[in-house]
Amino acid sequence: MKLPVLNSPYSQINNLLYKSYLPQIINSAVETGLFDALSGKSLSLRDLAQELNTDERITGALLRILVAIDFMKEQDGYYSLTVLSEEYLVSNSLVNQLEAVRMFAEGTSPFDGLKQALKGETKRFNSGMWVSENAVLAMEKSAKAGEIQAAVSFIKSMPDFYGAIKMCDFAGGTGHYSFAFLHENGNLHSHVYDLPEVCSLAKELKCREENFDRITYHDINGLGDCSLGNDYGVFFISRFLYECREEAVLRAFLKKVNGSMKKGGLFISSHIASCSKKECGLTIAMVELMTQARGYPVYKLSVNALKDALGETGFGEITILQPDESVAFPIQLLAAKKTKDAE
Known about the structure:
343 residues; alpha/beta; Arc Repressor Mutant, subunit A; Rossmann fold; 2 domains; 7-stranded mixed β-sheet; 3-stranded antiparallel β-sheet; 10 strands
């Protein structure tokens, strides 16, 4: 048998395919209690297997994988968590991402309909996927893993923020950004706008949280149903302007935003942008494909288009914080000041 001459390494494909099993492996470690058992301490393989009541040999094989992906450290036969695992994979961590791990390990793939989408059979996007309790809490947990911290740091760098007493948090979900901003400005009251089902869930889920009395929730059903109020010193919007992908729609929305704000007020957008790192770039490319295949046309925002639209609708003094590629998605933050009423 004459064998073909190979010109490229199959290992590149094989390794990638095996990495696709990692969510199941990590989730099994979570459900076994491995990360919780090692939180704040180190154990030998034997002691860990005894504490978890697991097979020592298989537990050792699992630990070697977790060490290889930097979720675990091993020194002199003792295993401990890395900072990464301690923050995001321990159940009592305030920013644990266990629901995200579970979703990737157990849920149906968002690419199940990709073949049909490629053939032009794109589904109509179902916005109802964002209105369940699990969905809104998952979005809040994900944002707490770096995005909210970045937004707070950014807004604190704006001197005008501390003089604001009224803000709009548009498409604000549970108000998780608002609660963080209110903590930094004791005079601020926030008005959160979202779908009726989301607002109802938010009131139920957040009613015992500090500063809940400084948030008012408002039901909306889309861009055409936007009575935004007035005199906002801050207008914050996170990952929504993709809905305004058409220039005319974006300008019309920004005019409405302008009309709801005080002169000198801050408009701040947090949105996914392009990134330079190969790994982040691949993730964003997959998000783009996933959302388009499910009927959502775009999930990135052109900063130049946004700057142009802001300039034409009464905003100026634009400040941009380039994407932080250490968070789950490279988020770009943009601030603009209302300099005049929109024409």
